[in-house]
């Protein structure tokens, strides 16, 4: 259908049919599902009639080709105008084949592989009947207490923007209609959901518009520039107004300023939650504020269907707003080809062939191997294949390594560390003991662990959070490993044997109690379906780790939020004068994080030298070339992620101490040197001024190049 035909379809719809298109319900409201006939109570509670369900526009959370075929066919058999349903789901980092959590994917610094993971997730989802994924989540994050940091790619707006684009390309491809194995992407959560007060989920966000535009909006904009079809509103307030009813944010910035004309959907019940926020007196006012803000689809509350008719009848809401929303929804259905083929790629037979196939699992393995960050190594790793190793800890044989948002991934399909490591220590010995639970420990467990460790030469600890300790609703004030696991470490340390720790988790942790005790620490995150195999291959050196952190690890939770691109103060701490009191510092902790943004070790060593820039002065139309020599001084091949940062020494508003502006991966053999080359333009020096204009300031800029945001070589130039 062309736009005129879609507009004609809107004209044929009754007001009730149009408003029902704006309603999204979970699958069990619809005929053809296993729960059919069991929803009378929920329907009555929500004030939803059978006719509303019959005309509703989209379904949340159903998957499986046959189930979706059944629901779609049943729905269309009763649809007066034959408008098909949209099926949506949270396919965050894989469908059945689960990839590492997005925070781990960010640590790969590999946007091509990230794109490939989204393409595979789309293929598995589409053949199972899904049309839209609620991904990517591109919220910038600086507070690891917030459990949903696991869903993002980190604390840097530039890197987040690159990954946002990559995920959208992977999910959507070039043409949704011609490529039914793709999904429409929905970027979330608009906006600034990643900055809740206290790191507490759903909590207030309070920041200036300049800060919002400088750090939090770029990744959403990048996703939309890549063609992302949908946007989801966030739960939080923005400048005192819940995002779902925030006209300035949704109409002013998203639609008018950025020109977004795709579908805007609320997060679960967030329209009704305006009442709890204190921004609406009742459901009627919540519906009024949301439709005025431009929200097209209401997820799982009945404010629209119950109150838009009376709002239109009273003249408070123009029916044209409803028509606009319906047209946007119909346009998305047309882009997906649903009017011609309402079943799209759903195919039970092909579904069995495609999902969780060997090809997809191989990519999951590769991404897990490239996402695990070596945080410390005093020469203990890699293990020799003939080593006598004790593997101890609650994650030795755990299948809880998929993470909170693992869609239809099954824990029993996850490759476990213990089994994988045993297979790889072909000439050695591996003994396994649980040692403790996630947050419990018994004397019997300690004794068994100690006995296992005494008979080994090396101890490898498998520690971490269970998946429910992060993710949505998983905020924590204590981000250390649970006390039971720290007690296990303490007991094993008394044996005086070399100790390596592997940590499975969904956030940067306060590593006190393990980092100083272990000879080596490997951050595995929740690594996905093939995680055990990938981690085992890193431990024995079949894979040389190359990942780099995209969130800083704090010295302690008391530093939080701690992030690399912070401002200086009027009384900065001089590292040579740490005893000085009246400067910006803690009296009981360093200012710097334990591990900075961009940090990660390898089994080889890299030396940086000969940093050069093409000119000491730069005009607006000029381009500066920055080059650095990198030499692999170790005894094995490795990949180094060379990172370029700048600092604007003096701006109209203060500028960060460092800002990431580029990176390049160099694969170097032992003894080999390579050159990383970067191009800097005036556009990369721009920022939002106090009047929100976006421009650069003449003056001095520093250029930093190195393996992370802390350890760098330095040059400078002037913008004239």
Describe the overall structure.
Helices cover 30% and strands 19% of the residues. The strands form six sheets. It has an eight-stranded parallel sheet with strand order 9-6-5-4-3-2-1-10. It has a six-stranded mixed sheet with strand order 11-16-15-14-12-13, sandwiched between helices. Strand 2, helix 5 (65-78) and strand 3 (86-89) form a beta-alpha-beta unit.
The structural class is alpha/beta
Radius of gyration: 27 Å
Main sheet: strands, sense, barrel? 8 strands, parallel
> Helical segment tally?
21
Give the quaternary arrangement of the chains: single chain
End-to-end Cα distance: 54 Å
Low-confidence stretches: none
The dominant shape is: globular
Percent in strands = 15-25%
Query: How many β-strands, per DSSP?
Result: 26
Mean pLDDT: 96
Please state how the strands of the largest beta sheet are arranged side by side. 9-6-5-4-3-2-1-10
Helix coverage percent: 25-40%
């Amino acid at each position: 259908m062309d736009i005129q035909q879609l507009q004609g379809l809107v004209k044929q719809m009754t007001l009730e049919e149009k408003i029902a298109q704006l309603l999204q319900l979970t699958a069990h409201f619809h005929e053809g599902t296993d729960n059919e006939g069991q929803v009378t109570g929920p329907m009555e509670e929500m004030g939803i009639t059978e006719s509303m369900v019959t005309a509703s526009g989209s379904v949340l959370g159903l998957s499986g080709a046959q189930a979706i075929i059944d629901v779609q066919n049943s729905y269309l058999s009763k649809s007066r105008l034959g408008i098909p349903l949209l099926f949506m789901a949270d396919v965050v980092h894989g469908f059945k084949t689960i990839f590492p959590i997005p925070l781990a994917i960010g640590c790969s610094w590999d946007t091509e592989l990230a794109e490939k993971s989204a393409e595979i997730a789309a293929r598995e989802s589409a053949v199972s009947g899904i049309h839209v994924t609620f991904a990517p989540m591109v919220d910038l994050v600086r507070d690891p207490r917030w459990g949903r940091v696991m869903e993002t790619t980190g604390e840097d707006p530039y890197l987040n923007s690159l990954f946002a684009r990559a995920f959208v390309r992977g999910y959507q491809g070039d043409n949704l209609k011609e490529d039914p194995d793709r999904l429409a992407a929905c970027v979330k959560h608009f906006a600034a959901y990643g900055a809740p007060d206290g790191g507490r989920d759903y909590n207030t966000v309070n920041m200036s518009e300049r800060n919002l535009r400088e750090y939090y909006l770029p990744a959403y904009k990048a996703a939309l520039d890549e063609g992302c079809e949908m946007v989801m509103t966030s739960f939080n307030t923005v400048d005192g107004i819940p995002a779902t009813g925030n006209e300035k944010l949704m109409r002013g910035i998203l639609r008018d300023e950025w020109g977004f004309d795709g579908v805007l959907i609320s997060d679960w019940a967030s329209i009704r939650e305006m009442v709890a926020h204190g921004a609406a007196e009742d459901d009627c006012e919540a519906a009024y504020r949301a439709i005025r803000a431009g929200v097209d689809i209401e997820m799982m509350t009945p404010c629209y269907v119950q109150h838009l008719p009376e709002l239109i009848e009273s003249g408070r809401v123009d029916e044209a707003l409803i028509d606009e929303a319906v047209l946007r929804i119909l346009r998305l259905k047309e882009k997906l080809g649903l009017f011609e083929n309402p079943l799209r790629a759903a195919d039970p037979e092909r579904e069995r062939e495609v999902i969780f196939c060997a090809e997809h699992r191989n990519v999951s393995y590769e991404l897990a191997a490239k996402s695990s960050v070596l945080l410390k190594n005093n020469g203990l790793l890699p293990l020799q294949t003939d080593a006598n190793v004790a593997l101890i800890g609650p994650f030795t044989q755990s299948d809880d390594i998929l993470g909170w948002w693992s869609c239809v991934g099954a824990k029993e399909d996850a490759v476990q560390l213990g089994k994988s490591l045993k297979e790889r220590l072909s000439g050695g010995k591996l003994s396994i003991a649980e040692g403790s639970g996630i947050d419990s420990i018994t004397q019997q467990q300690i004794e068994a662990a100690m006995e296992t460790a005494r008979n080994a030469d090396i101890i490898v600890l498998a520690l971490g959070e269970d998946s429910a300790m992060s993710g949505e609703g998983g905020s924590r004030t204590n981000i250390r490993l649970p006390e039971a696991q720290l007690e296990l470490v303490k007991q094993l340390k008394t044996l005086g044997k070399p100790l390596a720790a592997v940590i499975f988790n969904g956030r940067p942790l306060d590593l006190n109690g393990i980092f100083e005790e272990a000879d080596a620490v490997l951050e595995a995150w929740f690594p996905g379906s093939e995680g055990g195999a990938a981690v085992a291959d890193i431990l024995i050196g079949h894979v040389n780790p190359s990942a780099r952190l995209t969130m800083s690890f704090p010295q302690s939770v008391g530093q939080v939020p701690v992030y690399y691109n912070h401002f200086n103060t009027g009384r900065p701490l001089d590292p040579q004068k740490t005893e000085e009191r009246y400067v910006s510092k803690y009296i009981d902790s360093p200012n710097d994080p334990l591990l900075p943004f961009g940090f990660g070790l390898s089994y080889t060593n890299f030396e940086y030298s000969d940093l050069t820039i093409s000119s000491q002065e730069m005009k607006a139309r000029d381009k500066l070339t920055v080059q650095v020599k990198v030499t692999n001084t170790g005894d094995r091949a490795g990949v180094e992620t060379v990172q370029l940062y700048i600092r604007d020494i003096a701006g109209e508003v203060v500028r960060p101490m460092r800002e990431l502006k580029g990176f390049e991966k160099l694969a170097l053999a032992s003894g080999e040197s390579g050159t990383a080359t970067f191009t800097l333009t005036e556009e990369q020096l721009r920022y939002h001024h106090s009047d929100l204009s976006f421009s650069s300031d003449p003056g001095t800029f520093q250029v930093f190049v190195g393996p992370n945001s802390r350890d760098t070589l330095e040059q400078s130039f002037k913008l004239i």
